[in-house]
Amino acid sequence: MRGSLLVAGTTSDAGKSVVTAGICRWLARQGVKVAPYKAQNMSLNSFVTADGAEIGRAQAMQAAACGLEPTADMNPILLKPGSDRRSQVVVMGRPLADVDAMEYWDVKDRLRQVAVEALERLRDTYDVVVCEGAGSPAEINLRRGDIANMGLARAAGLPVVVVGDIDRGGVFASLYGTVALLEPADQALIAGFVINKFRGARELLEPGLDMIRELTGREVYGVLPWLDGLWLDVEDSLALDNRPAVGARPPYGGQTLRVAVVRLPRISNFTDVDALASEPGVVVRFVTSPAELDDADLVVLPGSRATVSDLAWLRATGLADALPGRTVLGICGGYQMLTRTIRDDVESGAGSVEGLGLLPATVEFAAEKTLGRPVGEAYGCRVAAYEIHHGIVTAEGGDPFLDGCRSGSVWGTTWHGALENDDFRRAFLTDVAAVSGRDFTPAPGVSFAAAREERLDALGDLIERHVDTDALLRLLEGGAPRGLPLLPPGGSPHGAPDFSQNRGISQNRGISQNRGMESER
Question: Which residue intervals make up region (Disordered) (predicted)?
Answer without folding.
Answer: 484-521
